[in-house]
């Protein structure tokens, strides 16, 4: 029996393909996330949809030990900054909740992380980054 799941933000993240949907502006030559109608760096209106890399490097991280308002998922969970292989830095969930288990420069990979379960049993998933090689 398979579990039904849905993305917390389908316009931003495809959990089945493990893809973040960002933007790219030819004028600036830069990617951004989430995608905006205008380039956040130059204001150019030439933003194109872009799939962002699924691999990254860990820069900064901490543990969230108290649930934010409205959040019903597990705590603690990791939270931090990763730099994608294209140079874009993202503030994101980190699957490892113990800050002592991570080091700056750790290779990371995009994963689907369950953050809630709907009343009908559907898993609600968000994007997160896990140490490369960790099975999610």
Q: Number of DSSP strands?
A: 10
What's the CATH C level of the domain at 54-136? Mainly Beta
Order of helices and strands: EEEEEEEEEE
Strand order of the largest sheet: 1-10-9-6-7-8
Distance between the termini: 18 Å
Please characterize this protein's 3D structure.
There is one protein chain. The chain is mostly beta strands and 136 residues long. It has a domain of 83 residues: OB fold (Dihydrolipoamide Acetyltransferase, E2P). Helix content is 0%, strand content 47%. The protein is built from no helices and 10 strands. Strands 1-10-9-6-7-8 form a 6-stranded mixed β-sheet, with no helix packed on it. Strands 2, 3, 4 and 5 form a 4-stranded antiparallel β-sheet that branches. A hairpin with a 4-residue loop joins strand 3 and strand 4. The radius of gyration is 16 Å and the shape is globular.
Task: Set out the fold topology.
Layout: E1 5-7, E2 13-14, E3 19-25, E4 30-32, E5 48-52, E6 55-64, E7 77-84, E8 89-94, E9 107-117, E10 123-131
Parallel strand pairs: 1-10
Antiparallel strand pairs: 2-3, 3-4, 3-5, 6-7, 6-9, 7-8, 9-10
Concise synopsis of the structure shown:
The chain is mainly β and 136 residues long. The chain is built from no helices and 10 strands. It has a 6-stranded mixed beta sheet with strand order 1-10-9-6-7-8, with no helix packed on it. Strands 2, 3, 4 and 5 form a 4-stranded antiparallel beta sheet that branches.
